[in-house]
């Protein structure tokens, strides 16, 4: 999120009472930023190819209906991987023709529903293909169908997010004994298999390795079409995975860089013989989300200053449990939402949960936080505050979209008015009780 827009939004959150002692943690989404990322994605591919491209947003990155609706309005579809994600995409109005189902554990009922709706499905493995055989034979379907392959090109810097390792759980492992032959044979025997899918990266995977994975899938599609003797595979789904810069407000790498790299290294991808699907998630949303929290208390422990806030493991689960892989920036504002300046002091920024490791930042140099200050945690728009972790029965915070009105002097929002809209209401205590067996209080004592 542009820092000027963020500063205005922080100030307005305090002024307009969004963030208050009674509501000490909220999450913000920068509507204009999300639109800009969607436009950057679309234009990056349009600059290198004329072929039709469905950019299916990976719903797991930000499973929020208003986000899916906004992205759909911006021309994007949805990549879903569970019945819940499919329900969100449908609630947002994303049509089946713009929806892709990829999950490693689809049940027969999920597959049947997807085929009835005409949603594209990528089979994760050959057993799933057997299930598709039966469904395709039993009723006609408009669903484009494909297989996910793992090109086994190797890992990035975060093991848990590296999908193309030798032993990854996803897709058919192409370099395993006999696997490539089995995949080619599967297409030969099933004229309705018209797509090939790979998703080779996520945070920590270098662009060159992602492109190498796409190149492997392309080469396989060419081999299959040659073997079959016609253009049976007409669409390649190249997955998502563009990494995000969590160290500054700079948005790098860009979609344009990745699209150019693909055009250079896999030119055939764009020459008109294949339609394309992409599945970006993190890179569309991460930079446009910010958590705001009030500093409830400050203290020192062993000489270390600690600011105790309301943003911790429930919102930034990966950061708290794996701080080295998922560092987040922490920005200091005063109680009125003005950026704190002044000398940096090494301090810890803690969350509210009752375990010692619930720290958003450890030994971080930033202006000394005081009681009542506001802390902003940028780059949290994907895989973060929309992925609540119910530790200590901490509530899901409210999520608000915001826009900044242009101030008309051409200076770009110097004193723009900030307008908030509710994306998701904060979870109530009654909801927490209900979701924690409140209706079954006697279940274990009867
Ligand atoms: C998670 C996932 C994506 C999105 O990955 P990002 O790193 O968020 O871009 C795309 N496709 C599949 C199959 C995924 O599992």
UniProtKB/TrEMBL annotation:
Q: Does the keyword Signal apply?
A: no
Under InterPro entries, the record lists: Ala_racemase/Decarboxylase_C (IPR009006), De-COase2_C (IPR022643), De-COase2_CS (IPR022657), De-COase2_N (IPR022644), Orn/DAP/Arg_de-COase (IPR000183), PLP-binding_barrel (IPR029066)
Keyword Transmembrane helix annotated: no
Q: Give the Orn/DAP/Arg decarboxylase 2 N-terminal domain ranges.
A: 44-285
Check the record and name the Pfam families matching this protein.
Orn_Arg_deC_N (PF02784), Orn_DAP_Arg_deC (PF00278)
> What cofactor does this protein call for?
pyridoxal 5'-phosphate
Domain Orn/DAP/Arg decarboxylase 2 C-terminal residue range list: 287-381
Could you tell me the keywords of this UniProt record?
Pyridoxal phosphate
Q: Source organism's superkingdom?
A: Bacteria
Coiled-coil blocks: none
Instruction: Return the similarity comment.
Output: Belongs to the Orn/Lys/Arg decarboxylase class-II family.
Q: What is this protein called?
A: Diaminopimelate decarboxylase
Per the UniProt record, the source organism is Streptomyces flavochromogenes
